[in-house]
Amino acid sequence: MPIKASIIGATGYAGVELVRLLLRHQNVKLSHLGSKSYAGDKLSKIYPMFMDICDITLEEPDLEGFSKDSDVIFVALPNGILNKEINQEILNRSVIIDLGADFRLVNPEKYEEWYKLKHYNKELLKTAVYGLVELKRNKIKNKRLIANPGCYTTTSILSLAPLMKKDYIDLSSIIIDAASGVTGAGRGLKVDNLYCEVDENYKAYGITNHRHTPEIEQELSELAGQEVTINFTPHLVPMERGILITAYINLNKDIKIEQIIKDYKNFYNNEKFIRILDGIDAQTKFVKGSNYLDISLKIDPRTNRLIVLGASDNLMKGAAGQAVQNMNVVFGFNESEGLNMVPDSLI
């Protein structure tokens, strides 16, 4: 019998992607779609691509009410809302998969410092798990509150994870340049994301203070077993979707790239959604519309630096796809159910 799934924030980019994925999931039935902006309208009116496929009427978001007949609720809301509304009774009824940042940072003081928001639910924060399946699958299985990582963090952490305990890298030297498509900023109206602002432009933002920095450092530090501090600079690219990170790391000793590639393949052995490219550079087109994350590696012999490229789709592995992957783990479904799609054509 299918489980009942609801989405709060169903008309945002990540929410719509969740609808698309869950409609193809053989173990899920959509129960409620919450949208503050479009309550009372059919989803197919807002997004005609769903006409005669999903004509569910959108409702006012109601976490308490939805939890009474939902096995899982995906929450795709701005930061700072969920931690005010959630409580243990809701979690007793429904698994909550949060696509926001309220439960990602284990230290609530860091959340308040970087997000400039008060955290109202520090007790439930202790029960949450960081939902990066490839690294925390066994912890996710029995959790009710899952903090679904975002696109920059997922791509950065997974692209560097196999290196964190290797003695051939200098952990203090990590620099990450990251580039994202415009959908990474959400569907809300922002001047910086208007067509005329984005088109024919390529810009850095959040320089030295982007709020995903402590999240990346938190997870890399856990993997390394020591404090890791990075330089992280995101960039906005005039494309709809996609993430590409380029990381630079100093090497401590001579090592062949073949050995590093082998280390990556061993680390991600049998992980369906992680692809280690050998002789090919990771690109966003290779993963568009899919839950794959591609990683490629090179050594610059002149500077003795390792260069790591990681590419993913910010709405899939960086948001909705990862959320469905987390759901599959929690409910014991095949981990790739609903996610078995070939990346979009290059044409």
Structure description:
The chain has helices at about 15-25, 45, 65, 80-85, 90-95, 110-115, 120-125, 135-140, 150-160, 195-200, 215-225, 255-265, 320-330, and strands at about 5-10, 30-35, 70-75, 95-100, 130, 145, 175-180, 205, 230-235, 245-250, 275, 295-300, 305-310. With about 350 residues, it is of the alpha/beta class. The chain has 2 domains: about 5-150 and about 320-330, 3-Layer(aba) Sandwich (Rossmann fold), CATH 3.40.50; about 150-310, 2-Layer Sandwich (Dihydrodipicolinate Reductase, domain 2), CATH 3.30.360.10. It has a 7-stranded mixed β-sheet with strand order 8-9-7-10-13-12-11. Helix 1 (about 15-25) crosses helix 13 and helix 9 (about 150-160) runs parallel beside helix 11 (about 215-225). It starts with a strand and ends in a 16-residue tail after the last helix. The mean pLDDT is about 95.
Q: In which range does the helix fraction lie?
A: 25-40%
CATH topology of the largest domain: Dihydrodipicolinate Reductase, domain 2
Please tell me what the overall shape is. Answer: globular
The CATH superfamily label of the largest domain reads Dihydrodipicolinate Reductase, domain 2
Q: What is the overall pLDDT average?
A: 94
- What is the CATH first-level class name of the largest domain? Alpha Beta
What is the number of beta strands?
A: 13
H and E string: EHEHHEHHEHHEHEHEHEHEEHEEEH
- Overall domain count: 2
What's the story with the biggest beta sheet? 7 strands, mixed
Main sheet: which strands, in order across?
8-9-7-10-13-12-11
Distance between the termini: 39 Å
* Low-confidence runs: none
Q: Helical segment tally?
A: 13
Structural class: alpha/beta
> Judging by the overall fold, what is the CATH architecture of the largest domain?
2-Layer Sandwich
Strand content: 15-25%
Q: Rg to the nearest angstrom?
A: 20 Å
